[in-house]
Amino acid sequence: MTAAPMPTLMLVPTGIGCAIGGYAGDALPSARLLAAASGCLITHPNVLNGASLYWSDPRIHYVEGYGLDRFAAGEWLLRPVRRQRIGLLLDAGIEPELAQRQIQVAEACRATLGLEIGPVLSTDVPLGVHLEQGASGASWGSLERPDALLRAGERLRDAGATAIAVVARFPEDPQSAELAAYRQGSGVDALAGAEAVISHLLVRHLQIPCAHAPALGPLPLDPHLDPRAAAEELGYTFLACVLVGLSRAPDLVTDLVKAAAGCRQADQVAADQLGAVVVPEGALGGEALLAAVARNVPVIAVANPSVLAVTPQALGLAEAVLPAASYSEAAGLVLALREGLAPVSLQRPLPRLR
Amino acid sequence: MSGLCRVALERPWPADVAPRQLHGWLKQQLELEGEPLRWAITAVQTLPDGTRRLQLEAVLLVGP
Q1: For chain A, which residues make up each domain, given as ranges?
Q2: Measured between CA atoms, how close is B50 to chain A, in angstroms?
Q3: Whose CA is closest to A198, among A124, A275, A253, A143?
Q4: CATH architecture for residues A8-80+252-346
Q5: Which of B20, B43, B55 lies at the smallest CB-CB distance from A294?
Q6: Closest residue to A150, CB basis, from B1, B42, B56
Q7: What is the pLDDT of residues A34-62, one digit of tens each?
Q8: From 2.60.40, 1.10.10, 2.40.50, 3.40.50, which CATH number describes the A85-250 domain?
Q9: Which residues of chain A neighbour B59 with C-beta distances below 8 Å?
Q10: What is the ipTM of this complex?
Q11: Stated pTM of the model
């Protein structure tokens, strides 16, 4: 007999250089394992997006970071859907040929994968994306014209889009030391922080699933490319994974008054159903994780080095957190929790009752 | 609409704020500066006297 699915939240914060998940969708194998262990995994695009590569699994819910934060805080619910109609939002700053590449990916996803995509529109002015880095080493970013982003998002929603894939022109410096380090597996993804800001803004404003892919020119061949970054070098765009992820992303249910009044559907997922949250052991300072801690959700902290050291010990949570040396071990802990086993009973020595 | 503002903040961690209360307390602290869009604790520093300081990085929505 298989235990009922146990909704589990997997977080690999964007732009902090995690050894697993800090590159091009390279936490996807770990996500697939956790989905199998839990039967229901809720995670975010940074975990699942591998540029031209993706994996579709009905047990995995693709939820952008702002929506994930609201979900973890118990402010929004998730409602699985059969499909989304994905509007494609292009930054007016993208050169015509590069914009055409994006549209051809959308066409390919319609023809080859059967996704419902459209309409396509451009912002009325370039978004003006800037990349920044915090004192911690984490990547951040901003844009000059958030108003243009939100106007275009509103037009897509009003035209019938139920989810939005946004592609913004990102600044690039193919000769930079940071890019070389990232491609060779030792740096932070400099684009990731700005990508998160763009998608957070859209989701906050429209309250529908949204995710971002950057528009960049092709890079010269790097014979020393790290396998974890290789997925980003397969094609001309980073869009296919976003379209696939959004195609079955759950709706974001923001009217909790209606839900509390008895209209909550059986298949909706709420934070109070979470059985575990899995997070890198040095990245316990994000909003979703702190919200989960506030709700007493069991935390599994996985050894997954990054530029941050916000550990269970630093936050006074060492006694409450289940440590895991790998995502394989974390999956075992998730399975134990799903089966109703006390994780401590699997360890030796077994401490006496106090 | 509001503008975006990236900030780095440092706050002493009050002894009466338990780890489970950090989420709500930090949101209150950030809301003094603007509407938090994306934020995280990026470092925790323990001082010689045992008190702790939290470093945060955030993007806020500010202005009308």
Answers
A1: 8-80+252-346, 85-250
A2: 12
A3: A143
A4: 3-Layer(aba) Sandwich (3.40)
A5: B20
A6: B1
A7: 999 999 999 999 999 999 999 999 999 99
A8: 3.40.50
A9: 140, 142, 197, 200
A10: 0.96
A11: 0.95
